[in-house]
Design a protein that fits this description.
- This protein has 231 residues and is of the alpha/beta class.
- It has 2 domains: 139 residues, 3-Layer(aba) Sandwich (Rossmann fold); 68 residues.
- The protein has 11 helices and 5 strands.
- The chain has a 5-stranded parallel sheet with strand order 2-1-3-4-5, with helices on both faces.
- Helix 7 runs antiparallel to helix 8.
- The longest helix is centred in the C-terminal third of the chain and has 17 residues.
- It is elongated and about 55 Å long.
- It starts with a helix and ends in a 6-residue tail after the last helix.
Length: 231
C-alpha cells in the first residue's frame, strides 16, 4: 500500500486499541489478537485513543481506586465521534450496559448478567492489582459467584451453603476479598470437611469469568476486523 493510499484509509494502517490489565495477561492476549494493548483505562484515555483513529477500541479493564475511570460521557463522545467500542469483563461490561443504546457493543457473560440485572453493583467486578505487572491481588465477587455456582451444580455444596458463602463474600471489602478469606469466614456456613472439599474443588478449577469474557472480546474484535458481526 502506498503512502497516499494509507492517508486515504488510515484505519487500515492501525491496530485495535485494547485497555487490558488484571483480567488477562497481555502476553496471552497477543496470542489471540494483534493489538495495541494499554494498561487499565483512566479518565481521558478513551478520548486520547479515539484521536488515533483505531478501527475499534476494546475496553476491558479500568482503574477503580488509583484515579477516575473513563466516564460514560467520555465513552459516549468516542462513540459519537465514529469510533467503534466494545466492552467486556470489567469496566468494559459496565460501560457497555450503560451505552448499548448508543452503539457500544457488550460481550460476554458478565455484560449479560449486568444487562439482565442479575448483578448490579460495580464491586462485583472490582479488584486490586499490582502496579508492577497488573497481577490481580484480590478476587472479584463475580468470579466467586461463578465458582460457587459450579460447585453447587456438581453437588460439592448445597443451595443454602452457596447463598451463605455469597453473602459472606459480599460483606468483605472488595480490596480484601480473596478465596482464602471467604473460606476462613465460612465456618458458620458449613462443616470443615465440606469446606475443605469446596476449597479443593475451587483450587482445581478454572473459575475466572473475567478472563473468559476478556478472551471472548478479543475474538469478537477479530471478527469485527474481518467484517463479521461480533458476538
Amino acid at each position: 500500500m502506498s503512502a497516499r493510499q494509507r492517508q486515504k484509509a488510515p484505519h487500515l494502517a492501525r491496530k485495535p486499541i485494547v485497555f487490558l490489565g488484571p483480567s488477562l495477561r497481555a502476553e496471552e492476549a497477543r496470542e489471540i489478537l494483534d493489538a495495541d494493548y494499554r494498561p487499565p483505562a483512566r479518565r481521558g484515555d478513551m478520548t486520547a485513543a479515539a484521536r488515533e483513529s483505531p478501527p475499534v477500541i476494546g475496553l476491558i479493564d479500568g482503574v477503580f481506586l488509583a484515579s477516575l475511570p473513563p466516564s460514560p460521557l467520555e465513552v459516549l463522545e468516542v462513540l459519537r465521534g465514529g469510533t467503534a467500542v466494545m466492552g467486556a469483563s470489567s469496566l468494559g461490561a459496565l460501560r457497555a450496559v450503560e451505552l448499548e443504546s448508543h452503539g457500544m457493543v457488550g460481550i460476554g457473560k458478565i455484560f449479560a448478567m449486568y444487562r439482565r440485572r442479575q448483578i448490579i453493583a460495580d464491586d462485583e467486578v472490582a479488584l486490586v492489582f499490582s502496579g508492577e505487572d497488573l497481577r490481580p491481588l484480590s478476587e472479584p465477587l463475580v468470579n466467586i459467584r461463578y465458582g460457587l455456582s459450579a460447585a453447587r451444580r456438581v453437588g460439592v455444596i448445597g443451595a443454602r451453603e452457596r447463598q451463605c458463602l455469597i453473602r459472606i463474600a459480599k460483606e468483605i471489602y472488595f480490596a480484601e476479598r480473596t478465596w482464602p478469606l471467604v473460606f476462613h469466614s465460612a465456618k458458620n456456613c458449613m462443616d470443615s470437611d465440606r469446606l475443605e472439599a469446596l476449597a479443593a474443588f475451587i483450587d482445581q478449577g478454572a473459575f475466572d469469568l473475567k478472563r473468559k469474557d476478556a478472551v471472548q472480546l478479543l475474538h469478537a474484535v477479530r471478527k469485527f476486523l474481518k467484517g463479521e458481526r461480533p458476538t
